[in-house]
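In the current project phase, the collection of sequences with tokenised folds has grown. A representative record is quoted in full directly below:
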Amino acid sequence: MDTATLIQAFLDYLAVECGLAANTQDAYARDLALFADYLERRTQPDVRSVTTTLALGFLSELKDRGYAVGSIARMLVAVRMFYRYLALEGQVERNVMAALDSPRLWRRLPSVLSPPEVELLLAAPDTTTPLGIRDKAILEVLYATGVRASEVTSLNTDSVHHDYGYLRCLGKGAKERVVPIGRLAIGWLQRYTAEVRPALVKGRPEPALFVSRIGRRLSRLAVWALVKRYARLTGVIKDVSPHTLRHSFATHLLSGGADLRSVQEMLGHASIMTTQIYTHVDRDRLKDVHRRFHPRG
């Protein structure tokens, strides 16, 4: 089989066997297309004959072309998973990518807002307008639960259980999880569903909880755009996205004393190693504690 056929077989495997989300599959497809193009230009079109040195050259080229460290690390994951698949299928005798690991320095700490910055962002929507109430409810849900943008847009009207204080969302791999939601977020959700949503859907049978001006399910890109718009209004200098609120949710919980396993479950992380990065982001607080309480601080 040629490279294109092998890559397509791998993408089919991700979709059918692994149940990865469409966004993740698209990202892997783009990353592997770049890798295939690199091999073609290096007169090495057969992915089954690639050496570790050649793979390192691919990563080096990405760096020279100005790709962000996080993007390069993600592409490395895609390539490693692809070769793991090839080894499982017997297409390669030895997985030469198994020895490649992301350098520790590549692991960027997530951008996090301070609690006052979060309050500024949550207060940004004009709640005297219908769409302002909707946007306020979205921001409150993002911070109250740590859900991803794609997860908040996938919520349906029956996903939120107001009386019991939790919501059900579909995460990566179509895995459902239950996440607690605070009373403030529930309050804004109730106001949105009572005052705003009926006028937007105009009586049409629409299951989506959050809808657009024309009463259709809000897209993931629309949620990203509204978060960035309100961040600009607040004057927060940091690059803010829905994922920033997710990072802030996790960091503030751990800073407040929440245990790592609980935060892992709420975020829907398959591995606690993914969640552990949030234990390192509050270094200023740790330095302050050390300065105030250590005898030689």
Q: What stands out?
A: Residues 88 and 95 are 9 Å apart (CA to CA). The radius of gyration is 22 Å. The chain has 13 helices and three strands. The beta strands are 160-161, 166-170, 176-180.
